[in-house]
Structures are given as C-alpha cells and as structure tokens.
Amino acid sequence: MNLSDLSNLDFSNTGNWPWLAKTIAVLVVIAAVAGAGYWFFTQHQLEELQQVRQAEQQLRTEFVQKQQVMANLDAYRAQIEQMQKSLDTLLRQLPTRTEMPDLIDNISNTGRRNGLDFSLFQPQNEQQQEFYAAKPIAIRARATYHQFGAFISSIGALSRIVTLEKASLADEQQAARGRSATAPAGGDTKPLVIEATLQTYRYLDADEVAGGGAAQGSARN
C-alpha cells in the first residue's frame, strides 16, 4: 500500500479498506479522541490538581507554624506578662494631668536647691503621642558647671521621668556674644549661663485619648 492507494480509499465503505489503512484510521481516531479528552477534561483537572497541591503545601506550612506557636505558648504568655509589668512600671512614672503642676514645681525647686538661679523657667505646649503627652520646659539659669551637673543628677533620680533634651553652657561674656562652650574655661566654680530644654511626660486620661482633650489641655497649660 502506497500514498496513491490512500487517495483512492472509499470513505463510504471503510469495511473494505486494507488492514494497514484501517490501522492508521483507528490510530488517528484514538489520537483525536485522546487529544480532545486531554484538552477538554484532563488539562483542567491537572491544573486543579496542581492548585490543590499548592494549597495543601500552604496548609502544611501554616500547620507547622501554628504548632510551633502552640509549643511555645507558655513562653509567649510569660513574655507578654513581663512586658505588661514593665509597661505598668513605666506608666506609674508618668504623672496624670492633675499631678503635672506638682512635678513642674518639683523640678524648679530641685534646680534652686542645687544652686541654679533661674531667669527663665517656662513650660512649653504639650506634644501629644498615642497614650502620653510630652511637655518640654525651657530654662535659662546662672550656675556653676558642678551645680548644673548636680541638678541633672537630681532630676534623673526623681520618681517621674524627666530628661535633658539639649543644653548649652557659656560664661557671661560668651553668652553676651551668643557663643557657647562645652566646658567652662575657668573650672567648675565659675558662674555660667545655662540654656537647656528639659522634657517630662504625663499619662493621658481616658477622656483625652477618646475625645482629643490633650489638645485642649495643651492650650490651658
């Protein structure tokens, strides 16, 4: 059987085809059916199988992660409890709105006890954060280097949080010329002009957090 014989085949009488032509026709039909089945059914099922396998792998990963969390749950709880205790300790160092005036007076009195002669002691507007408000205090005073160091040490020992944000020290001649010095030229007994900004903090009341009352409190303070 050759190619010319294939062109002479009678498609209305396939039963009389030579066995080779029948074999080829059967193979073509099988290939067509298999190809159509793969295209319309098997391909989509393979894609779904791949998606299911990926989802399975993701679920396995999530299961392992959650299992690790459960295994360390007691340690996490202990860590959270310790963090909460530390937070409570810090919050106890923050005065409330009604306690802030006493803290400011305490800072001023601490300065005077350490020999600072204030020409300026001016609390600034509060700066509200998430659950607390920062209150800067601008100061200008006359004192020795040693007295200013003792003052900073004393406010650091207060039960409330007070920090030194910035400071400049200069003798009176330097201050008059607008210059500052990092250390006094005449030792720690020579009077200096000190300009500094202290920062203290207070805890926001619940009504301030909910209703934005800190802004109103800043205007009053």
What does this structure look like?
With 221 residues, this protein is α+β, with helices and mostly antiparallel strands. The protein contains eight helices and five strands; from the N terminus they run H-H-H-H-E-E-E-H-E-H-E-H-H. It has two domains: 1-9 and 18-70; 100-220, Alpha-Beta Plaits (2-Layer Sandwich). It has helices at residues 3-7, 19-71, 73-92, 100-113, 145-156, 172-176, 206-211, 213-220, and strands spanning 117-123, 127-128, 132-143, 162-170, 192-203. It starts with a helix and ends with a helix. The model is unreliable at 181-186 and 213-221 (pLDDT under 50).
Domain count: the total is 2
CATH fold name of the largest domain: Alpha-Beta Plaits
Element string (H = helix, E = strand): HHHHEEEHEHEHH
Outline type: rod-shaped
Rg over CA atoms, rounded to whole Å, is: 42 Å
Q: Which architecture of the largest domain does the CATH hierarchy give at level 2?
A: 2-Layer Sandwich
Query: How many strand units?
Result: 5
How does the helix and strand content classify structurally? alpha+beta
Helix content: 55-70%
- The low-confidence runs, each spanning 5 or more residues with pLDDT under 50, are 181-186, 213-221
From the N-terminal CA to the C-terminal CA, the straight-line distance is 109 Å
Number of helices in the DSSP assignment: 8
Average predicted local confidence, pLDDT: 78
Q: CATH homologous superfamily name of the largest domain? A: Ribosomal protein S6/Translation elongation factor EF1B
What is the CATH class of the largest domain? Alpha Beta
Q: Strand portion, in percent?
A: 15-25%
User: Largest beta sheet, briefly?
Assistant: 5 strands, antiparallel
